[in-house]
Structures are given as C-alpha cells and as structure tokens.
Amino acid sequence: MKSQSESHNLKMEIIRLRKLLSEQEKEIVALRLIADYDFLTGLYNRQGFVREAEKFLNSLKTAHRIRRKHGVFNNISFIFIDLDDLKTVNDLYGHKYGDQMIKMSAEVFKSNLRDLDVIGRWGGDEFIIALIDAEEEDAVKIARKIQSKLSEIRIKSIKQKITASFGIISVKSKYRKDIYNLYELIEKADMAMYVAKKENKKNCVTSFNQ
Length: 210
Fold this sequence. Notes:
The protein has helices spanning about 5-35, 45-60, 85-95, 95-110, 135-150, 180-200, and strands at about 65-70, 70, 75-85, 120-125, 125-130, 165-170, 205.
C-alpha cells in the first residue's frame, strides 16, 4: 500500500501535469491566432480564410447540407474587395494613414456581415468575403451597402475618401458538378473586380459572367 506521503506526491504530480497541459493548450490557441489571423485588422489572414471557407464549399460539392443554428444552406457567394488608391494614401500621407484606412475599412466589412459569414484579408489592400447561403443578388446588395458605408468614413488630416471595387461570384449546390475549387472561385471574383475597375474607373460592383 502507498504511504500518505506517496499519495500526496502523486496528487501533487497530477496537479502539476494538469497545470502544464492547461498552459500548453493556451499556447496552442495563441499560436493558432498568430497563424490564422491578420495582426492589423483582426480578420482571418489568407490561411485562416481558406481553412474556414473550404468547410462550407466542400459541403456544397458533396451535397451534404450542414444544419446549424442558422439553418440549412444551399449556396455560397464570394466577394473580392480591392481598396482603391491605398498606394496613393501611403505615398502622400505615409503608411500610418494607409494602415488606418485598412483598419477602418475592415471594421465596415465586419459590421455589415453575419456571424456565419467568413471574411479575411487576402493581402495588402485586398479582402475576401464568403457569404453563406447567399445568392448573387444578395451578394450585390451587401457589396453596395459596404460601398455606401465606406463613403461615410473620414480620416482626420487627409482628404482622400475611402472607396473600393468589388468582384462577385456565386455557386449553388444543385450545380455542384460545376463548382470550382476555392482558389479558382476567388480568382474569378478577382477577375470580375479587376475588369470592372479598369472599365469603370474604380468604386464599382460587378459579378463574374460565367
């Protein structure tokens, strides 16, 4: 039989190991935050966005409907966003104001989305949104709403207004045989945004023409 001393030592060792495990779990969470989130905006970075968005896209491809508190979804839309004239702001006023422009824009994006939607900073002045259970018409409405809200932002000490250009693509589960992979969809949304920006001189919303 174990002595009282041995039993006490065993309990203390268990407590120590539990504490160590708890600390390691906290470190894992912290590392995931570093790995998946953009430090400037608090949004997902490219890696984090891809991980989250692919969960929904894969469910459409396999025709498995995900039941969540928000219900069943059958389609998904992507909005690719490019902030207009960020380079001009950086060149004229400095990167401090460019960063402020990015952060304020990110707040507008987040405040006009649902908890279910996924948003990330794709890189530099580019952002990507996955609207869950949203058709093209819904995505256009959201993009135009964001466009309007951005126009209301004023950054002290600079005259530059914040505008952005938006490219949209939508897919439905009933057409799942035609669903591209995530990067192809984002590329097509990016193409729509680029063509519209080139033709319409920025601050525009357009959809990819299949």
